[in-house]
Design a protein that fits this description.
Layout lengths: L5 H10 L3 E4 L8 H11 L4 E4 L9 E3 L5 H7 L5 H12 L14 H8 L4 E3 L7 E3 L19 E3 L3 E5 L6 E4 L3 E5 L2 E3 L7 H12 L2 E8 L3 H6 L10 H9 L4 E4 L6 E3 L4 E8 L5 E3 L2 E2 L5 E2 L2 E3 L1 E9 L5 E2 L9 H20 L3 E5 L10 E5 L6 H10 L9 E6 L7 H11 L2 H4 E7 L12 E8 L21 H14 L4
Parallel strand pairs: 1-2, 3-20, 4-12, 22-23, 23-25
Antiparallel strand pairs: 2-3, 5-19, 6-9, 7-8, 7-11, 9-10, 10-19, 11-14, 12-13, 14-19, 15-18, 16-17, 21-22, 24-25
Helix pairs in contact: 4-9
Length: 482
């Protein structure tokens, strides 16, 4: 099912026994992080802290921190279901005769939910505070060496001054004082590109920040979409109903009407950049200080009895790992559209999204794995992948033990390790240069004579099917419990 708002999601989490309400007073400085980190590492529930020191607002955290909760957030039984729906819709082989088939009507009607609709009123504006004070919000200081408190789950909404398209991204926001924050727009991100356009124009760049929408809306802000696609369109598709948008109070940006909080303001592009960081990041390391624009808050609106949503990142597993897993499943069909030989992909949590991608293919020609590596590096945010491992169709890329066996045994370093220079994520700390470094592709497929391997390639050691079936039929007789 799709959720109308965050509270409906919370209600469902409670019904499924996926949420614990914490009634003891807790501190938003470090204490909530330590509690949630222990819960995340134990693969535990979502947490709703009802009494947070110094704030009237409760805190929701880890709400999407499991496969089940992430699937619920997207209104699906499992994440593969979302990918399969997208694959069905974009399968051009089925295009012929679509409009003639009654069976396709439900699929076509799904498109009607894609486009957001504008409304005159929104619950997010039940309370309007034109003398805004960020200190009233239970914003977390997550880790001991953090530069301050950070808003970690913001939907940062801007409008491209040239195309007039609205963009939504998720960029952390360090709180400097009651009405200013940092705006972490780093290179390669859409928000930075829009900011650079405003810099040429001069003056103030309007920004609105939404907190606590329907979870599908929150997820969509993290999705690696092409520039021409509004994140609210993806949200509408995922939730099977249009996102209702209401105009901000102090600027012309439209925000999700059922959000818990809206923080409105601007970035003065003529101002000097300000130091932001450090921040305990999803790599498991602190990202270092750097210079970023300053966001000035002019108005805060919120629902009555609003709930403040947040997340923490750090050493995996964490809640954001499951959001990355959703991206892996949701966008696999698009990757396969560009490169049909790709069967499946896996991004291990330990690779923190972009450091390791495992790809299984149906190998059809010599050095096919090399073609796939370069295809992946040329696709959007896949350019950040520091390591791409290619295996064949008899290997499940999610079976990390089997993948490791193939890598450790099937590779000759000189022939099968491909070094490639290119862009790296701004958070990468290992490269000598920021934003750029060396990536590696590993061809763990069986090698052909045409690839320079003139010796015979041995078969995998496996039992024959007849013996497997015999043992399966007699298993109860052996008295062995596994």
């Amino acid at each position: 099912m799709a959720y109308k708002h965050l509270r409906a999601f919370i209600e469902d989490l409670e019904k499924e026994e996926e949420l614990v309400r914490v009634t003891t007073e807790v501190d938003s400085e470090l204490e909530i992080t330590e509690i949630c980190d222990r819960v995340s590492k134990a693969h535990g529930p979502a947490l709703l802290f009802e009494k947070v020191k110094g704030s009237e607002f409760p805190v929701l955290i880890n709400s999407m921190g499991s496969v089940k909760r992430m699937s619920m957030a997207l209104g699906a039984k499992d994440l593969n279901e979302v990918g399969e729906t997208i694959a069905d819709l974009i399968n051009m082989a089925n295009y012929s005769g679509w409009l003639k088939s009654v069976k396709q009507v439900p699929k076509l009607s799904r498109f009607a939910s894609v486009f957001p609709i504008k409304v005159n009123k929104g619950a997010c504006q039940e309370v309007v505070d034109k003398d805004p004070d960020l200190n009233k919000l239970p914003i977390l200081k997550c880790w001991p060496e953090d530069g301050g408190r950070y808003i970690t789950l913001p939907l940062v909404m801007t409008v491209d001054p040239e195309t007039k398209r609205q963009n939504t991204g998720m960029y952390r926001m360090q709180v400097y004082d009651k009405n200013t924050t940092g705006m972490h727009w780093h290179w390669h991100k859409d928000g930075r590109e829009i900011y650079e356009k405003y810099r040429k124009l001069g003056g103030k760049m309007p920004v609105s920040v939404a907190l606590g929408g329907d979870p599908a809306i929150t997820y969509s802000a993290t999705a690696p979409l092409p520039k021409m696609i509004d994140e609210m369109m993806l949200a509408g598709f995922l939730r099977k109903r249009p996102v209702k948008m209401v105009k901000s109070i102090t600027n012309d940006i439209y925000v999700p009407a059922n959000s818990e909080f809206i923080i409105e303001g601007y970035v003065d592009v003529n101002e000097e950049l300000r130091e932001e960081g450090p921040f305990g990041d999803h790599t498991g390391y602190y990202s270092l200080e750097d210079m970023y624009p300053t966001f000035h808050v002019t108005c805060i609106t919120h629902k009555k009895n609003a709930i403040y949503p947040t997340t923490i990142v750090g050493q995996p597993p964490m809640e954001d790992d499951y959001m990355g897993l959703a991206t892996e499943r949701v966008f696999l069909p698009l990757l396969k559209m560009v490169s049909p030989e790709i069967l499946d992909i896996a991004m291990p949590f330990e690779g923190v999204f972009h450091n390791c991608v495992i790809v299984s293919i149906k190998k059809k020609f010599p050095f096919h794995a090399h073609k796939v590596m370069n295809t992946c590096w040329g696709m959007g945010q896949m350019m950040y992948a520091k390591m791409i491992i290619v295996v064949e169709d008899d290997v499940d890329p999610h079976d990390f033990s089997r993948v490791a066996w193939k890598v450790f045994n099937n590779t000759d370093a000189k022939r099968d390790f491909v070094l490639n220079e290119g862009p790296l994520d701004a958070l990468d700390h290992s490269s000598p240069n920021a934003f750029f470094g060396t990536r590696v592709g590993i061809d763990a497929t069986k090698k052909w004579k045409e690839e320079g391997h003139t010796r015979p390639w041995p078969n995998d050691v496996e039992m024959d099917e007849a013996t497997k079936e015999k043992v399966s039929a007699r298993w109860d007789e052996y008295g062995i419990n596994l």
